[in-house]
Design a protein that fits this description.
The protein is α/β, with parallel strands linked by helices. It is built from seven helices and twelve strands. The protein is globular, with a radius of gyration of 17 Å.
């Protein structure tokens, strides 16, 4: 049965934003989520048990305790959550996740923030970012002057499934779309998402120097997962432009 199992910790949630970090193009969400958890020393808050996810168990170096491959972490203040995944997630499983955790979102006053890359070849200019929304998310974006989409597009994969769930059920959600390398892990795109999207929205500041200084190391560490995601298919989140006469 799908459910969120809250772990024993001292964190009291305070209507937090939740940053989604499911793997997708450029691994933008995955890199940003992993970075926030490590940089802030976030506490594991909950295991997410969901129909459709592979029946696997995760453990960490130096800790024999098993957990699910999909987890929620919280900062000390309880106003920021990060959803971290170690495995690709199918859209069907993502819909199950959304069904599972939406009631908990409502109870705790959680505002989900979804991250996705739109494939673009790299050039000298910094990646561009814009916001998308459902429910009351438009007001949140307008309050911090996040740019509107510059073209028509569609969000695919698990992040698209979770955003579609928000649209169907008229719940509040915010999404950030950033130009990303279509072939390789993209720490620079993840940095832009944090500094130009997550920071203004949450009113928080996060250390991001490591995302640039350790870019090669991060790419190498994420390369295997990126190769899995390159196969695309329904488990790869990305934004696809929809052009007339295409």
């Amino acid at each position: 049965m799908a459910h969120v199992r809250i772990l024993e910790n001292d964190v009291e949630l305070a209507e937090p934003y939740m940053i989604e970090g499911l793997p997708g193009v450029g691994l933008v969400g995955k890199i940003a989520a992993d970075h926030l958890i490590e940089a802030l020393g976030m506490t594991k808050h909950a295991d997410v048990h969901c129909t459709g996810l592979p029946s696997v168990a995760r453990y960490e170096e130096g800790d024999p305790t098993l957990s699910t491959p999909l987890r929620l972490y919280a900062n000390d203040a309880g106003d920021l959550l990060v959803l971290q995944s170690d495995i690709p997630v199918s859209p069907d499983a993502a819909t199950e996740i959304a069904n599972c955790i939406q009631g908990w979102f409502d109870e705790e006053g959680v505002t989900p923030v979804y991250l996705s890359g739109i494939p673009r070849e790299k050039d000298a200019e910094p990646p561009e970012l814009y916001g998308i929304c459902a429910g009351d998310g438009g007001r949140l974006l307008s309050e911090v002057d996040i740019g509107d989409p510059t073209e028509t597009g569609i969000v695919t994969g698990p992040t698209g499934a979770m955003l579609a769930h928000a649209v169907e059920h008229d719940t509040t959600a915010v999404g950030f779309v950033v130009e990303s390398d279509p072939q390789f892990p993209d720490p620079e795109a993840a940095r832009i998402v944090i500094t130009e999207g997550i920071e203004p929205l949450t009113g928080m500041e996060f250390p991001v120097d490591d995302l640039v200084d350790r870019a090669d190391e991060i790419r190498q560490a994420k390369e295997q997962l990126a190769q899995q995601m390159q196969g695309g298919g329904e488990e790869s989140t990305q934004v696809q432009p929809l052009r007339m006469y295409q």
